[in-house]
Structure formats: structure tokens, C-alpha cells
Amino acid sequence: MTIVEFFFDIRSPFSRIQYELLIRQQNHWKSMTQLRMTPVLIRNIFEASGNLSPAMNPAKLAYLTRDLVMLADYYKMKYATPKEFRKIVTESPMANTQLFLTAIQNHSDEATFNRLVGVIFDEGIASDVVEKAINVMESDENRAQLEKNTKRPIELGGFGLPITLVHSDNNNASWVFGSDRMHIIGHLLGEKEPPILRS
Looking at residue 93, what is its pLDDT? Predict the structure, then answer.
């Protein structure tokens, strides 16, 4: 059984693109027997690696904005960078949504959780819904799970998101950074078919 594990943060626009691409491959690549989505905190990954967030680096932010438009067009996806992207990333309580997802992940089946992640990527989630769930989300157990999730890509050498980890049958694991590496993921899976990039 080959597990493809997707480390993501809802606030990472490149995680959004990678989510969509992985979903497109689910029924296309038979060797990808399980898609596991793991919520993490991108801010902690940036801090641990010494990498500046695009929101804190004007050159990165300008490039990211252009690149996302090009990628969305190429992959035929609906995507628009939020007008208040910098404010959202730097001022919003980033951990709340990820804590919410971690809490749900621990109490739902994988297929339901994966669909929910897609809905939140597409529609967002109202802050009042997150606020109402804070009592459960802020439990020590849930916080510890999110910290554990975040520590894994840091230990792999991650410096941003998305990170996709391919666990193969022979207990080898290889990780790939970025949302434009589906052909490499297919290669790691031993797939002969190219990825479905445009739908």
C-alpha cells in the first residue's frame, strides 16, 4: 500500500493548488492507494527553517501573486488571491483553523476529512464557527497533535508548504516540495501514466 501524505496549511495558496492536483490523481493513479491530509502550521515551519514568509518579503509576495494566477490558469482552477492576503496571513490567528482541522481529523473518517479540507479551501470557514469550536480545539491533546504534525515536515527538512510525502511499500519515504511536482510524485509512485494537470 502506497500512502501519499499531504502536509498543508489552509492559509497557504500553494497548498490549495496541490490539494486540487492530488484530488485529480486519486482515481487516475492506482498506486496511490491512500491520500492522507495532515494539517500543520506554516508559520512554525518558516520559523524553524529561517525562511521568510512571502507576506514578509515584498519580492516573494509579488512573485507569488503572479505565479498563482499563472498556475491557476494553467491547471484550469478557480483561484484568486484574497485582497487582504498580507493582513490575513500576518494578523489572523493562523493556528485556529489548523487546530479546528486537527480536531475534526481525529474524529472523522479520511474521505470525509479530505472533502472538508476541499470545502474550506474553496469557501473558507467563518471565524464564528471556529470561535465556537475553540473549547475543543484548544485542548492540550489537540494542540499536541498539531505540534506533532508540524514537527514532521520540519524534521524532513521542510522550509514551506506544500510538502507531499510518498510512503512506499518498501518502507521508503520521499518528500517533494511545491505544487508543481506531480510528475515527480508519479515517478516516486512508479506510475507510467502522466498526471492529470488540467481538467
Answer: 60
